[in-house]
Specification:
Elements (H helix, E strand, L loop, with lengths): L1 H10 L1 E2 L15 H11 L5 H9 L3 E3 L5 E2 L8 H18 L4 H7 L2 E7 L2 E9 L6 E8 L5 E3 L4 H9 L3 H5 L4 H4 L6 H4 L3 E4 L1
Parallel strand pairs: 1-8
Antiparallel strand pairs: 2-3, 2-8, 3-4, 4-5, 5-6, 6-7
Helix pairs in contact: 1-3
Amino acid sequence: MEDKWKSLLREVQINPSLVWRGAKPHCCTSEIFFEFEHKSGFSFPEEFRFFCQIFGRGRFGNDWILISRCPAAEDLNEQLDDDVDIIETLKLQFEGSADTLSILNQSYYFGCCNQVSFLFTKEVVEGQPNFCHRIYAMDDNGNFYNMGIDFFQFVKKYCLGEGIGQDFPQLLKFMVPAGRNKEQMVLNAFTSI
């Protein structure tokens, strides 16, 4: 599995002009990832661990999808507190919707793009022997978009490819700010932060 992530990294342009000032590329070790997983109480998809070890934190494209939850040893406890706060804030925002709260109660926030949050959930999926990690996009109105159970395909199709425009055109209005177009934002590039 790790090889396909390394292969994908070789296909992606790392754009140094977009690197945040003073930021060093951040990838985590297996040990830090497992500590993060243990302290969070959430078991993450194995594909996400490989992503964090090979890509690290960062943004795809030019202001496109940001994967922000790759653990860092120096601020692990602070990050875990922030992660809880993010989900709790979303719950407060949609406390009147039982369906929304049901998904948020089993979710972990891992990324965003403008007015869209990306979440992992642990769910029993028909035809799968154990629970699976489903990936959802959640827009500012509390609507959920089922983006599948394969994190590698999520990155390849939705972070680097044209999949969101093809599969979820209604989601684009939340992801692309006024005055911009999708083509300005979706590039075969990754900025490590």
